[in-house]
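Q: I have 237 residues here and want to know how they pack in 3D. Can you give me a structure?
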Amino acid sequence: MAANNQPDQMTLPRLQRQLAWSQGIAVLALLGVIALAIAWQVSSRGDRDGILRTHGIVVTDMQGHDKILIGAPAIATAKSTSSYGRTNSIVFLNQTGGYHLALGQTPAPVVNGRVVGARIGNDDNYGVTLYDTHGNERGGMGFLGGASRAAIVLDRPWPSADAIGLMVDDKTGFAGFGINYAKGGQSGFELGTQGNAVSMTFNDPRGQKRASLRVEGPEKPAWQFAGAATAASAGKP
């Protein structure tokens, strides 16, 4: 019986090697077909520099739903994204067809399917924009070209307003962050540096300054309460 089993034991490794070779050849053939298809596409467009050029790309799931949109023309074809305006970006869509993430030119701010407010920066804003499961903007990171400002912001779901913001403003020289009230979107707390000074400010829900601490250069820390300056102190009001 052992003698009869020996040929089978020698054949199995040989079959495995042949199967591996067959799989490798199939992969190489598939890559060759893909390369030929790309080359034909490039040559058919008259491009001779080896670069594939196109106006837009739409990636769909197995059911044919749009999931990734690349380029302004591709984004314009998706009816569910019309409220966000025209943007030159890479956009990832959620299950309902709304924006999930945008990378590139910052779209218009949208909450509950409509544009709310306007951005500063003359539409020359680029970065990453985040959205919740309903397609409402919830934050992002980018550079506002017209305002010369780099910013990282997290938004509240409703009402639409910045909740926490971190920024560097090239025009004013301010670098710092702020935390806003939920109602009205007024600034509640600000901390930052500007020039030779660092300051910390507390505002009421109306946006009125109620208390602040400022340190400028070698001077002593100065507290202010409700707009009335107190004597400079070393740390206590």
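Q: Anything worth noting?
A: The radius of gyration is 29 Å. The first strand starts at residue 57 and ends at 60.
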